[in-house]
Amino acid sequence: MKSSILVVLLGFVASTYAAALTLQSPKFTVSSPNGEQKRSEPISFTKKPSPVQLGPQDVLRISFQITEKENGAGVQPHQAFLRFYDDISGEDGVQPIRVATSGKAKFELNMARPPRSLPPTSPDSTLKVSLIVGSFVHTPLTVDLFDLIVPASQPVAPHPEEVRYHPQPAIEHTFRPEQKTPPAFISAVFSVLVLAPWVVLVGLWSQLSPKVPHLFSPKIVPFTATLGAFEVLLFLYWLDLKLGQVLLYGAGLGIVAVLTGKTALVQVGKLRKGSI
Q: Any bridge partners for residue 141, and if so which?
């Protein structure tokens, strides 16, 4: 069983290797727009023809048949295309070719309407034209056909928005100078002004010295704590809070200050009457 499988595999490999491809009757023709034939020659595998030159309106036609080298039977390969290669610029392009089931194929290049596969050319460009054939069951075939000289490509029309993609001037940022801190004397003066209300409050407390223990009663401490909360709120505003947040929180503290302050004033009044 193993020997029979080996024989089949060897036979398949041998048949695949033997199934080489070749071209039958390859030729090219150059004609003018009015149909006048300028040049017509067969393509030889042993001697490359002289370069083929096309004018702006000329038409190049190539015809051939792909066959098996052994028995001459026509073959429709998996793929076949012409390659145009400019060895000066390194640009190339490929043009697929439709091959019939009999292996016959034709290609036409009209310079009045050149295909997109034709690479851009300069006045000194010479395109090397080759045929590349690929098949699943045959050995690939590559044939150098001839050198082709075509008119130089026209410059590409600039796109209307091309200028938007040109290098733009560098963006330069101008930063404001660093914030200057006020002199120490000015800072000290404003610190005293901020703490002045507390000095006044301590002075008022001193007038109630006979009743100082009553200052820590539940009716007075909430008002004092509310005043301290105002100071903390202003300090946080200086650090991180926004003005809207300060106004919102300050409005809440103001309502609490009014309520606790009214109670504290009543209590202070009672203390002053008791001390008289």
A: 133
Structure-token match 């600039």, residue found: 158
Tokens of 117: 């596969």
Residue 252 scores a pLDDT above 80: yes
- Please say whether the beta carbons of 93 and 109 come within 8 A: no
Tell me which H or E stretch contains 255: helix 243-275
Instruction: Burial-class residue 76 by CB neighbours within 10 Å (0-12, 13-18, 19+).
Output: middle
What tokens were used for 200? 């006044």
- The 10s digit of each residue's pLDDT in 193-207 is 877 877 877 777 666
Q: What 8-state DSSP symbol labels residue 160?
A: T
Are residues 147 and 127 in contact, defined by beta-carbon separation less than 8 angstroms?
yes
Nearest to 88 by CA among 109, 51, 119: 119
Contacts of 95 (CB under 8 A, 6+ apart): 81, 82, 84, 107, 115, 117, 118
Strand order in the sheet with 59-68: 37-42, 21-31, 59-68, 104-110
- Pick from 102, 81, 101, 107: nearest CA to 93: 81
Q: The whole model's pTM is what? A: 0.51
Residue 15 confidence (pLDDT) above 50? no
To 10 degrees, what angle do helices 243-275 and 221-239 make?
160
d(C-alpha 251, C-alpha 86), whole Å: 82
d(CA 84, CA 147) in angstroms, rounded, equals: 9
* Distance in angstroms (rounded) separating the CA atoms of residues 190 and 231: 14
Q: How far apart are CA 221 and CA 259, in angstroms?
A: 12
How far apart are alpha carbons 22 and 235 in whole angstroms? 93
Closest CA to 119 of 98, 155, 94, 156: 94
